């Protein structure tokens, strides 16, 4: 079998699997995994299917041991949960799991351009990865269309006096201003990992520009969830049997991945919930309800999603609290001076978004937090729109709580995270009661576990937590800084082109933005534009984006909102903009 596949052709995994299948087909007596759609475009081949395709050849090469045990190892490689291992596989029901150090989870793994799903490396897998890596090539350097390519830099790279601000250039690294860079990953190879991007909509290739609503899932996440149900499924924490250990191991492994991803100090600070909405409700209905009293004040920003407004309004109505709002300027930037004026002895909580879902504004989160703490208030940061676009470090931010949804960071729906400082979480009484969160129950009283268990009553979304862990692995492998840089470049590119569409008005023109391009187009209702784009296979959101107050601040009830992720391309943006030009004709 030759592995000298022409690097110029950049074969994808399915092509490689096909090649392997053809080869094995030619061997006498081999059992073949044939493609059901012979002669037609091949469906993507799962990577573990690829391993199976290679298997006979691997035997030949002596790379795979015939006595290889096909029973799956657990996610973090031991087959026993960290908790079970620490307790000789006899989980102590009075003190189950969560905070044991698991050596299998320590430290990030080296980046691989090809990932085999979730097994620890067998010797043959290491070899196979080498083979697959050899056929992966990076794309030719793409020059950022900055000052060499354009007459004028983009308006939002300038500060308010019209002076170019080097900090706003794509990688925020002044030393690289104006230099061409190569994207550090090949967007076409990355796209191969997302099967849904091969869908056609209305006869056209799908162009997914609705990433602020939800992101698409790489095959690695899809496979990981499927693997969980095939090999690990059990309830967690409560039994000493093998599958309970595997499931617990996988679930707690995911918690550790989240911890590392946002740089929390401990896994005990990571609570799994349904999503950002439930996360904010948890803080509103536990700590806030327990600690705020009539007359106390909560500050939110004008940029907030309804999820970070309504729970505070509900609480304010119940307890007689006052809600104050940080205003924004005409670009959609937080007015820090005005914010400082709102702070006072009655301020008990500041809750704000790190990135606006409607405008894309990146808020000065560290400064907002610092000022709140100086006033003695606690801080909740809504990271629903930030974690997929920029490096988040909760310790550097010093947030008391930080929340996000898994589905916006390439993970499954129905899973999200509350990060909270450990001492604060342990001082707070749970908001829901039930199994899993107690250490002792009589009919007279209940003793709760410490965090995170005290906030995870009942059976949680185990499989999707594990899927979120796989999504975090995926993002980490590409590198969140690389993602941030590439998306910033796309945002600059798209903004420049959109500005040239006659009659367009961009809503949200802050210098520091992520992902989102909100606009209205004279002569068209936003839903008409959404429908016209849909006809061409382009998915964008048109509406109020669950952020009515900020849209009304700009005098509109709705906008069209393309939003970018790292798998989007310049070609997709070109298509979007061409259609808008066509509409105007
Ligand atoms: N916060 C922001 C900024 C959002 O954009 C969203 C969803 O769009 C949410 C909170 C709510 O997230 P979820 O619906 O996943 O709970």
Automatic annotation (TrEMBL):
GO terms for biological process: cysteine metabolic process. Residues 207-576 form the Aminotransferase class V domain. It catalyses: (sulfur carrier)-H + L-cysteine = (sulfur carrier)-SH + L-alanine. Residues 65-87 are annotated as: Disordered. Residues 71-85 have a biased composition (Low complexity). Keywords: Pyridoxal phosphate, Transferase. InterPro entries: Aminotrans_V_dom, Cys_dSase_SufS, PyrdxlP-dep_Trfase, PyrdxlP-dep_Trfase_major, PyrdxlP-dep_Trfase_small. One of its GO terms (molecular function) is cysteine desulfurase activity. Its EC number is 2.8.1.7. Gene3D superfamilies: Aspartate Aminotransferase, domain 1, Type I PLP-dependent aspartate aminotransferase-like (Major domain). Belongs to the class-V pyridoxal-phosphate-dependent aminotransferase family. Csd subfamily. This is cysteine desulfurase. It comes from Mucilaginibacter paludis DSM 18603.
């Amino acid at each position: 079998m030759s592995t000298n596949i022409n690097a110029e052709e950049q074969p994808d995994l399915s092509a490689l699997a096909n090649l392997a299948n053809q080869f094995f087909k030619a061997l006498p007596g081999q059992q073949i995994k044939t493609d059901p759609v012979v002669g037609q475009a091949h469906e993507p081949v799962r990577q573990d299917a690829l391993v199976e395709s290679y298997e006979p050849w691997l035997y030949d090469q002596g790379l795979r041991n015939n006595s290889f045990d096909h029973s799956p190892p657990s996610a973090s490689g031991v087959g026993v949960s960290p908790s079970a291992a620490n307790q000789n596989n006899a989980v102590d029901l009075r003190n189950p799991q969560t905070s044991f150090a698991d050596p299998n989870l320590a430290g990030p793994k080296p980046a691989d351009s090809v990932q085999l799903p979730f097994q620890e490396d067998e010797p043959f897998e290491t070899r196979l990865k080498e083979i697959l890596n050899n056929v992966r090539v990076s794309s030719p350097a793409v020059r950022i269309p900055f000052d060499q390519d354009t007459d004028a830099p983009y308006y939002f790279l300038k500060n308010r006096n019209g002076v170019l601000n080097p900090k706003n250039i794509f990688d925020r690294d002044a030393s690289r201003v104006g230099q061409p860079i190569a994207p550090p990953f090949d967007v076409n190879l990355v796209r191969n990992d997302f099967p849904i991007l091969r869908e056609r909509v209305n006869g056209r290739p799908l162009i997914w520009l609705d990433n602020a609503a939800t992101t698409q899932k790489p095959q690695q996440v899809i496979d990981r969830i499927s693997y969980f149900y095939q090999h690990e499924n059990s309830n967690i924490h409560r039994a000493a049997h093998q599958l309970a250990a595997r499931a617990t191991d996988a679930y707690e492994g995911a918690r550790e991945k989240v911890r590392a991803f946002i740089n929390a100090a401990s896994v005990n600070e990571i609570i799994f919930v349904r999503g950002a909405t439930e996360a904010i409700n948890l803080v509103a209905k536990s700590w806030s309800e327990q600690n705020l009293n009539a007359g106390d004040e909560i500050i939110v920003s004008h940029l907030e999603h309804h999820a970070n407004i309504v729970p505070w309004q509900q609480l304010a109505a119940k307890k007689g609290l006052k809600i104050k709002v940080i205003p924004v300027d005409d670009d959609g930037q937080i007015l820090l001076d005005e914010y400082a004026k709102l702070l006072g002895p009655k301020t008990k909580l500041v809750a704000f978004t790190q990135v606006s879902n409607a405008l894309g504004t990146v808020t000065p989160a560290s400064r907002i937090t610092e000022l709140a703490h100086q006033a003695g208030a606690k801080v909740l940061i809504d990271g629903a729109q930030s974690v997929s676009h920029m490096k988040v470090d909760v310790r550097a931010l010093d947030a008391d709580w930080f929340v996000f949804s898994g589905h916006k960071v390439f993970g499954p729906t129905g899973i999200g995270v509350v990060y909270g400082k450990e001492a604060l979480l342990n001082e707070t009484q749970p908001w829901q009661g039930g199994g899993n969160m107690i250490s002792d129950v009589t009919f007279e009283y209940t003793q709760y576990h410490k965090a995170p268990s005290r906030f995870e009553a009942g059976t949680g979304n185990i499989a999707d937590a594990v899927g979120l862990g796989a999504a975090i692995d995926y993002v980490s492998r590409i590198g969140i800084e690389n993602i941030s840089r590439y998306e910033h470049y796309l945002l600059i590119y798209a903004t420049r082109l959109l500005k040239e569409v006659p009659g367009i008005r961009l809503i949200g023109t802050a210098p520091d933005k992520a992902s989102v391009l909100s606009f209205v187009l004279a002569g068209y209702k936003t839903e008409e534009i959404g429908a016209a784009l849909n006809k061409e296979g382009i998915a964008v959101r048109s509406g109020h984006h669950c952020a009515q107050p900020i849209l009304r601040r700009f005098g509109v009830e709705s906008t069209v909102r393309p939003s970018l992720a790292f798998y989007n391309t310049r070609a997709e943006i070109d298509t979007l903009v061409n259609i808008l030009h066509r509409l105007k004709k």
